[in-house]
Design brief:
The protein has a domain of 136 residues: Thiolase/Chalcone synthase (Peroxisomal Thiolase, Chain A, domain 1, 3-Layer(aba) Sandwich), CATH 3.40.47.10. The chain contains 12 helices and 12 strands. The chain is globular and about 55 Å long. 32% of the residues lie in helices and 18% in strands. The longest helix is centred in the N-terminal third of the chain and has 15 residues. It has a 10-stranded mixed sheet, with helices on both faces. Strands 5-6 form a two-stranded antiparallel ribbon.
Amino acid sequence: MPEPRLVRVGLSELGRTDLPGRDLFSAALAAAFEGLPDPAEIVDALYLGNQSEQYENQIMQGTLMAQWAGLTGIPAERVEGCAAAGALALRHAVQDVRAGTHDAVLACGVEKMTAGGTEGATNALAAAFDRALEQRSGVTAPSQYALLAQRYLHEHDVSEEDLARIAVKNHANGAKNPHAMFQREIDVDTVMESPPVARPMKLYDCAPVTDGAAVALVVSPEVADDLVPRDEQVSVAGSAATANNISVAERDLTFVKGANLAAERAYQEAGVTASAVDVAEVHDAFTVCEALLAESVGFAPRGRGVETARPPGERSQGWTDVHLNTSGGLKARGHPIGATGVAQAAEAYDQLTGHAGDRQVDGAGVALLVNEGGVADAVTAAHLLVGPNGGGAR
């Protein structure tokens, strides 16, 4: 079974833009294929992560983006899993290459979230909640995550300031990322004094509404060698996905079980443990998410996930030496919801090939991606990537 290779990635502008989704996709595609043959000469299939047709009143997004890429006569499908849509598109690409169904697959994500305004984005995101039990009560995404944060603060010796430091760390990373929506640093006071959204979540605890697109080219080893040098190839050594209860009321709010299962399966496939991971992009739609995921995927002891804001070596006993959300995460890089999982892969690719610039982690060889959909882990996809420097981890 061939081990799929990630050989190129591309991002569009991330933020609030006048460009429609198809133009954002075109920008990401152009960035990914710079110096390569035309996509029509390479790509056998396309999967597109896209959260909602409500933003642009557009379904058939897979077909639309294939058309925009000049790809005709190939399978082109939209993948939906709320905020995990991008990672699920990546997983479909990986599975196709593993199975030998296709030799080169484009994993993409695109979202034009600002098209519907605040009300449109709120309604589109609320569609991920259980209709009978939650939507009709009027709950919003921030209020759902506020429940997780309240429980986390109650269960552990953790303060709102600890959560705020996660936002500070991710803004510091985003300030070094030319693709980030927010390229400026903040301090704890900025977070703590920002307006409340749903207590204890404040404005700076929350990822922004973002327009953007991301593209990743997944190919067989043979195609990879034809396209790029070995030091520009990243192996997808582990891939897994899980579904949990869609209703938050029916879940344990203190541990992200779906992420735990997905990560453990990805580790097992890759033949590594959490301690082998050098960099990780985890789904910090809200600051509490990063803390919970750090614990659930095996990086941190229970109740100490907030120490993601500390450098490795300054954390509690039991922590690994992983660097989290070097891109700035959803919080600072931005959260173009259907594209987020592929944007995570773009950051990991840059880190593992030494192209991350001022935010480069020295010697990064192994990366973990964790992308959630719905509230916390209604659906979760995890990928374990190994770069040219990560051979010793296998």
